[in-house]
Amino acid sequence: MSGVVYWLDMAGVIVFALSGVILACRSRMDPIGMLVLASVTGIGGGTLRDLVLGVRPVFWVTDPTYLWVILATVGVSLMGLHYIHRLSRGFLPIADAFGLALFTVIGAHKALLLGTSGMVAVLMGMMTGVAGGMIRDVLAQRVPMVLREEVYATAAMAGGVVYVALHALEAPLTLAIAASISVTLGLRLAAIHWHLALPVFAWVTVPPKNHDEAATPLSTPQKAKERVRMIRRERKKH
């Protein structure tokens, strides 16, 4: 079964590296930028996980195959660059969802092998799944999906909980892996298809001063100025 987990890890690296290549193309980056985005997406989450868990050296240092897989993914993508540009906007979130599902179960599995508690294993699974995408989005000057209202980290957490629970019940490893991947992937794809999102909370509400202002929508600069005035009034009260 260790071979199955290893190949699942490689599959996750390929999928996440491809998502980095796609975003690099849409951000008009050169081949070096493409390689950087593919690398941080493919191995960034696992690297952070190993550092937190105290694994030295990290996985891709002991097994450089991961680096060769990323390099091969970028090379093949460059040869098919014309087709990548023609991919729909929805392909990147779908590819990212598959990578999230694969890396979540890999992270939780490795944490449990190192003897961590179930809660830590769930967090390590989520970290492995979301950290690489966060770094990718920041480098591409986008707000990371995990920081928006999208069902993203929630899906990873749910998949990690399923894996840890089945592991505690001594279920077969194949069943635990399949169930975890199915839950994470199912939740993420459902969120993409039906535009599901978590609630967003705003701590400042600016009421209109009179009926005329309520009827006239404020522009963005006006909203900002009014919000500042509201905050100053609240501070004076306290």
From TrEMBL:
Q: Where is this region: Disordered?
A: 212-238
Which parts pass through the membrane? 6-25, 32-53, 65-84, 91-112, 118-139
Instruction: Keywords in alphabetical order, please.
Output: Cell membrane, Membrane, Transmembrane, Transmembrane helix
* Superkingdom as given in the UniProt entry: Bacteria
A Pfam family this chain is assigned to? Gly_transporter
Membrane topology is:
Multi-pass membrane protein
- The keyword Nucleus appears for this protein: no
According to its UniProt record, where is this protein mainly located?
membrane
Q: Does the keyword Protein biosynthesis apply?
A: no
Please report the stretch or stretches of sequence annotated as the Glycine transporter domain.
6-78, 94-167
User: What subcellular locations does the record give?
Assistant: Cell membrane
- One Gene Ontology cellular component annotation? plasma membrane
The entry assigns this protein to a family as follows:
Belongs to the UPF0126 family.
Q: What is this protein called?
A: Trimeric intracellular cation channel family protein
Q: Which organism is it from?
A: Vreelandella maris
